[in-house]
Amino acid sequence: MTGLVERNIATLRGVQQDIDRILIDRNRIAERIEDLAAEIRGDLDLLAEDVEVVLVPILTGSIIFLADLIRHLPQKIRIEVTTSSSYVGKATKSSGDPILGGLPDDLAGKHVLIVDDILDSGTTIRRVRREIERRRPRSVHACVLVRKMIASAIETPCEYIGFDIPDEFVVGYGLDYDGYYRNLPDIGVPKKEAL
Ligand code: IMP
Ligand code: MG
């Protein structure tokens, strides 16, 4: 038991060591998510009561954001996951067309909220929204925790945005590099030598 605890601490220290600087710390993230949830909660209250609300998180990056966000939403909601990967392996730039996993089929007539970690080129959100719209939902909205301040991201329709950040590669709070750093509780810029 002690050995396992020690190993876990060593792993966490390893993650922190590779970070050059923290861009958004865990307290700011928590505060902003409360505000964002209040906005979504208010909008959901305005929707027809007899219409189902389905959250569609895009895995894997959105898992931590989703977990924190939904605990501030008191309404009856369902979660139907989808997957997407646009960064293949050790990449810090989108590979272009994202590879989408399966989407739920029964979205017709429902209110759908797409949830993702970050808006970068915008290809992922655009693709997922298009695919969802083909399933004839009552409405589709999108929510991201972070948006990069670049034209392609700003021009991508997205109703709920947590933070705008400079055009830098970031990790933590669900965001990864080559599958790592998702467990970092803050959002930070990795050191060059870690990439
Ligand atoms: P987009 O399709 O270019 O908007 O990219 C969205 C996806 O790329 C996100 O869901 C992330 O998984 C990934 N991504 C974009 N920028 C970053 C970053 O700075 N760090 C980690 N992952 C990123
Ligand atoms: Mg992602």
What does this structure look like?
The chain is built from five helices and nine strands. The chain has helices at 2-17, 26-46, 63-70, 123-133, 151-154; strands at 19-24, 53-59, 77-79, 82-85, 99-100, 111-119, 139-148, 160-165, 187-190. Helix 2 (26-46) packs across helix 3. Inosinic acid binds next to strand 6 and helix 4.
Helix/strand layout:
Layout: H1 2-17, E1 19-24, H2 26-46, E2 53-59, H3 63-70, E3 77-79, E4 82-85, E5 99-100, E6 111-119, H4 123-133, E7 139-148, H5 151-154, E8 160-165, E9 187-190
Parallel strand pairs: 2-3, 2-4, 2-6, 6-7, 7-8
Antiparallel strand pairs: 1-9, 4-5
Bound molecules: inosinic acid and magnesium ion.
Magnesium ion is lined by residues 58, 61, 84, 116-117.
N-to-C CA distance:
32 Å
Radius of gyration, rounded?
A: 17 Å
Arithmetic mean of pLDDT = 90
Decide which structural class fits the backbone.
Answer: alpha/beta
Chemical compounds bound to the protein: inosinic acid, magnesium ion
Q: Name the quaternary structure.
A: single chain
- Biggest β-sheet, characterized? 7 strands, mixed
Number of strands: 9
Q: Helical residue percent?
A: 25-40%
Query: What characteristic shape results from the CA principal axes?
Result: globular
Provide the β-strand percentage band. 25-35%
Order of helices and strands: HEHEHEEEEHEHEE
Concise structural overview:
With 195 residues, the chain is of the alpha/beta class. The chain has helices spanning 2-17, 26-46, 63-70, 123-133, 151-154; strands at 19-24, 53-59, 77-79, 82-85, 99-100, 111-119, 139-148, 160-165, 187-190. The strands form two sheets. Strands 2, 3, 4, 5, 6, 7 and 8 form a seven-stranded mixed β-sheet that branches. A two-stranded antiparallel ribbon has the order 1-9.
